[in-house]
Amino acid sequence: MPETTFLEAVNSALKEEMHADERVFLIGEDIGAYGGAFKVTAGMLDEFGPERIIDTPIAEAAVIGAAAGAAMCGMRPVAELQFIDFISCGGFDQLVTVAAKSRFRNGVPCPLVVRGPAGGGGRGGPFHSACPEMWFVSTPGIKVVFPATAYDAKGLLKSAIRDPDPVLFLEHKFLYRRIKDEVPNEDYVVPLGQALERRAGDDMAIITYGAMVHTALEAAEELAKNGHNVRVIDLRTLVPLDEETIIKAAMETSKVMIVHEDTRRGGLAGEIAAVINENAFDYLDGPILRVTAPDTPVPYAPTLEDAFLPQVSDIITKANELLHY
Amino acid sequence: MLLTPRHIKASGTKTPAPNKDHDKKAKGGELYGHYAANRRLLDKGAKYFVQKRKFSADAGLNNEQLLELYRLLFETRRLEEHLVALYRQTQVVGGVYRSLGQEATAVGCAYGMRDGDYLQPLIRDLGATLTHGVMPLAMLRQYMAKGTGPSGGRDLNTHFSDPNVGILGPVSMLGAMVPVLSGCLLASRFKGEDKAGLVFIGDGGSSTGAFYEGLNFAAVQKLPLVVVIESNHYAYSTPTTTQVPDGNLVRRAYGFGVDVSHVDGNDVLACFEATKLARERGLAGEGPTVIVAETYRRKGHAEHDNQAYVEDNEIEAWAKENDPVDRYVEFLSKGKHANAKVLEQIRNEVEAELDAAREQAVAESQPEPETHLQAVFDDGTKPWPHYESWWRGGPTHREDS
């Protein structure tokens, strides 16, 4: 199998789904001749033409709104946001108000995918670095996907495009060109709603997703040098949340830490802690700990951003507290 | 804060009534108000037209079609009166949003579309839903949150959809459906369907960013979208002069680089003709048209609104001099399209149908509470009735118009 970057994996998922299903089309800003701000759609205009690779005005409400309307009328649109932060520009209303509620209130399915680069580490400052997943995790009617590997990016995006409901697909921009996986050329899917155990271990569990999977795995390797076997769970999909795998990890390791790049207050860690509390409280041998970004906007200067983002050393420090609790 | 005459009045200072020309009598569809000056201004460059209806001008419709329009206007008004009565009996859940005085815009514009076209009504477009094929029974069920209603009791009044019959229910966030209708038309383009779309918006809703983004996108893509701005003087309590400089919605619309029609919204035939033309233009690849329909909301935002912000005698003047149903009856009578007996027969038929629908809807139940978790995502459940239970098809003679 060829070694493929995360970015190439997204590109090949889009191309394969467009070849397989004539209902699939792309809509977004600068996705045509330019190939997208991160070049995810490079070459696709030549391959599919301007009817199926639709460049739009700078108008996120129009991008997601038109995608929602087309989805309600039988198409399978994939809307790209240049940076996922820009979903606050009118696109939020279209996703939360129109798409998320369409089936529930009217019985009209709205199978669109909104995808775009999320996350920090790129020195993009407060408006190009956000992890906005919780706005949508707390909105009934939207599925939220946040892959960590190239293999999963391709397989999960294919599932998202084929899903009968709206999906927000978050691509961590720091991973686009930094990680490579063996990714099959043939068709495969990774089902939504299934977490994956990335590393086995019974001394404690780290539950995480997105780019933090790699940070957590690095920390787990360090901890192993001192004889601690740390399990690492990659959630992959935040809605639907694989509660079964979370509860199983809590029961089998008795010590759970949750790591995410999103800010702390109202972050997914709180929800996961509640799920464990309700289902596996008696199995715990220590408090559920969180390693997250602090409750600030994402800063610009490398010194500030590195302090903002959870680091391997932060995870190791907290893990030692929990392991020795 | 911008001080409009109405705000000055609220603070106790006496000023001349705004838009004094409103008091001038309408003659055969002549436009009311302060738009006259702007009309001349735009004559120089913009492609738009103003309808000045003569009693003999029938907009190319035959007698059956003209009577169909009368039936729809009357049905709209009477159905809303039933809803108000049910509201006072606490049968209605939530508010009732009247279109009294502006029924001609909703009915006339929807009559300019075809079965299969997409239509997005707002709360005051009950007449458009009836014209596009929704049964009066469905509206009664919706307002009373019955499980048998199109949304299965999950959303309000005109908020229900089925793209298969071209009904796209609004969301309450105004302007949001303009990009959505554009997306529906993109889908039709992909499928090679000959469909146009009609989206209603108010003078207030046309101030939103979503309206701008959606209309601009449709214009760039040259989609066959007809946007009807129902300029009814008030967005809740806010006058049009607070929405847009000089209250000039025509100038606002012209800025999109699309064709603009400025019509008398209380002239049902003018609304029909403008929409028909806009639809044809759109399907010929000429892009969207904005129709600014001048009308007047004679009731409050909803039944609870006592309209204290309205000038004295304003409502009465519109009711007396520019009621869309009265004007149409006068047109039909003077043009010898129908005699009193024919109109009475239509009214009797509508009354009987509405009485029966009301009785049936009142007797039905709200949805079973245990269904409330269903269908957030595709879970195989279908807690909404099929459209055949609420869609009767567009009016018989509309297709020939």
Walk me through the structure:
The complex is a heterodimer of chains A (325) and B (401). Chain A contains 11 helices and 14 strands. Chain A has 325 residues and is of the alpha/beta class. In chain A, the strands form 3 sheets. A 7-stranded mixed beta sheet of chain A has the order 3-2-4-5-7-6-12, sandwiched between helices. In chain A, strand 13, helix 9 and strand 14 form a beta-alpha-beta unit. Chain B is built from 14 helices and 7 strands. Chain B has a 5-stranded parallel beta sheet, with helices on both faces. In chain B, strand 4 and strand 5 form a beta hairpin. Chain B is globular. The termini of chain B are far apart. At the A-B interface, helix 3 and helix 4 of A face helix 7 and helix 8 of B.
Element pattern of chain B in H and E: HHHHEHHHEHEEEHHEHEHHH
**What is the helix fraction of residues of chain B, given as a range?**
40-55%
Main β-sheet, spatial strand arrangement of chain B: 1-2-3-7-6
Helix proportion of residues of chain A, in percent? Answer: 25-40%
Tally the helices of chain B: what do you get? 14
Strand order of the largest sheet of chain A: 3-2-4-5-7-6-12
How many strands appear in the DSSP assignment of chain A? 14
Fraction in beta strands of chain B: 5-15%
Rg over CA atoms of chain A: 19 Å
Coarse morphology of chain B = globular
Averaged pLDDT of chain B: 87
Distance between the termini of chain B: 48 Å
Largest interface: A-B, 43 and 46 residues
Task: Please identify the structural class of chain A as seen in this structure.
Answer: alpha/beta
* Low-pLDDT windows of residues of chain A: none
Q: Mind describing the biggest β-sheet of chain A?
A: 7 strands, mixed
What sequence of helices (H) and strands (E) makes up the elements of chain A?
Answer: EHEHEHEHEHEHEEEEHEEHEHEHH
Profile the largest sheet of chain B.
5 strands, parallel
Cα Rg of chain B: 20 Å
